[in-house]
From TrEMBL:
Superkingdom to which the source organism belongs: Bacteria
Localisation per UniProt entry: Cell inner membrane
UniProt xrefs under Pfam families: T2SSF (PF00482)
Membrane topology: Multi-pass membrane protein
Record family assignment: Belongs to the GSP F family.
Record keywords, A-Z: Cell inner membrane, Cell membrane, Membrane, Transmembrane, Transmembrane helix, Transport
Claim: Cell inner membrane is one of the keywords in the record: yes
Entries under Gene3D superfamilies matching the protein: Type II secretion system (T2SS), domain F (1.20.81.30)
Record keyword Transport present: yes
Residues annotated as transmembrane: 188-214, 241-259, 395-415
Domain Type II secretion system protein GspF: 88-211, 292-414
Protein name (record): Type II secretion system F family protein
Species whose genome carries this gene: Dyella humi
Length: 422
């Protein structure tokens, strides 16, 4: 009992020391080296005197040492993006595979960062490691940037003594998943921008162009054709109740987002409808299968138990429907069912994937088969996105032409009618 109490006390003391190191201010210094050359840099320390003492120990003559000023509104720099984490993963994996010590690797990577926020994050992780934390514990300070899956993989690598190999696997995993996300976002960006432009053009015409034509028609006493009357009525409504339209659109988007985040049933319904869309649904479905296969392959290769890995895999699919299916599969595997049988019960995985998983389980090469499935569906996503992009371009032009062109034709119909009577 006394041994357990002492161990707990030591653990708390180590945690307090790590927290104290993390909270140290950073001092920017300017010093002269032995040749009289002016040097500058930054160093975390409790006070300026310790910085000066450290500089003198290194053979430099301190000139100025001042604490780095903190920004007025939180951390400076842009937000840390998943792409930044992917690049960092590749850098740290390469350095550790080359034999560079972990702390030194963090120093090198942090010095090369242009984003102050990410640089400060890496410094804090390094300080945690210097304070006695393992890498996965130090990364736990930033659960948003380094999610549970990432930390679990690092912990598995540390436990097995193959951290450099696991980091290389993690880097490849992050690069592949971010590439799929970027591909899908690129495919959606063009049609969304075209629709936004079409909406703005229609708004400008309804608010500023149509009223001019409407006044001319009224002064001429011409009888308006049905299409023109519809456009004029829409213009009058927009001029009188434009705020209703704007608040209605913004309110609908906000309500949709809130309902999806707060209601599991609504999120499931919305995700299932999205997966049934003609072209985009197929891309999202293939993307979910690719991410499931690669994530499960990485975790299984890292030595994470299959049932434990399924929890992290569920969140990585990017789909509520597939996440629920993975949780169902986890429960089936936990009671002794084979993975391929659990996958078949969900009805969401193609027969080819189920068969490859079955072969992998029988041959003892499950991770290899999962990677093969991931590569196949990643290629399918790439091809589908390229096809979608080529189809959307003319389709968006047609939509834009029908909306704007239809309004122009409707406005000129009374003029054509007057000209025919004359």
């Amino acid at each position: 009992m006394a041994t357990v109490t002492a161990a707990t006390k030591n653990t708390r003391q180590q945690a307090a020391q790590r927290a104290q190191i993390t909270q140290m201010p950073t001092y920017e210094w300017v010093a002269l080296d032995k040749r009289g050359k002016r040097m500058k840099g930054a160093m975390p320390a409790k006070n300026a005197s310790l910085v000066k003492a450290e500089l003198r120990r290194q053979g430099m003559n301190p000139q100025t040492v001042k604490e780095r000023t903190k920004p007025l509104f939180g951390s400076s720099g842009s937000a840390v993006k998943p792409r930044d984490i992917a690049i960092f993963s590749r850098q740290i994996a390469t350095m550790m595979a080359s034999g560079v010590p972990m702390v030194q690797s963090f120093d090198i990577i942090a010095d090369g960062q242009k984003n102050p926020r990410f640089k400060n994050m890496l410094i804090q992780v390094k300080q945690g490691i210097e304070g006695g934390s393992t890498l996965h514990e130090a990364l736990g300070q930033f659960p948003v940037q380094f999610d549970e899956l990432y930390r679990n993989l690092v912990r598995a690598g540390e436990s097995a003594g193959v951290l450099d190999t696991i980091l290389d696997t993690v880097a490849t995993y992050k690069e592949k998943t971010e590439a799929i996300k970027a591909k899908i976002k690129k495919a959606l960006f063009y049609p969304v921008m075209v629709l936004v432009v079409a909406f703005l053009v229609c708004m400008v015409m309804l608010l500023f162009v149509v009223p001019v034509f409407a006044k001319t028609f009224k002064d001429a006493g011409a009888e308006l054709p049905a299409p023109t009357q519809v456009i004029v009525s829409m213009s009058e409504f927009m001029r009188d109740y434009w705020w209703v339209v704007i608040f209605g659109m913004v309110g609908s988007i906000v309500a949709l987002v809130m309902a999806k985040s707060r209601s599991v049933k609504f999120a499931h319904f919305l995700d299932r409808v999205t997966l049934k869309l003609p072209v985009m649904g197929n891309i999202l479905r293939q993307s979910a299968i690719a991410r499931f296969s690669r994530t499960l392959g990485v975790t299984f290769k890292a030595g994470v138990p299959l049932v434990e890995a399924m929890d992290a895999v569920a969140g990585a699919t990017g789909s509520v429907v597939y996440a629920e299916a993975v949780h169902q599969m986890r429960d089936d595997v936990a009671v002794g069912h084979q993975l391929q049988l659990a996958m078949r019960q969900t009805g969401l995985f193609p027969n080819m994937v189920v068969q490859m998983i079955a072969i992998g389980e029988e041959s003892g090469a499950l991770d290899h088969m999962l990677f093969k499935c991931a590569e196949f569906y990643e290629e399918e996503v790439n091809n589908a996105v390229d096809t979608l992009a080529s189809l959307l371009e003319p389709l968006m032009m047609v939509i834009l032409g029908v909306l704007v062109g239809g309004m122009v034709v409707a406005l000129y119909l009374p003029i054509f009618k007057l000209a025919s009577t004359v």
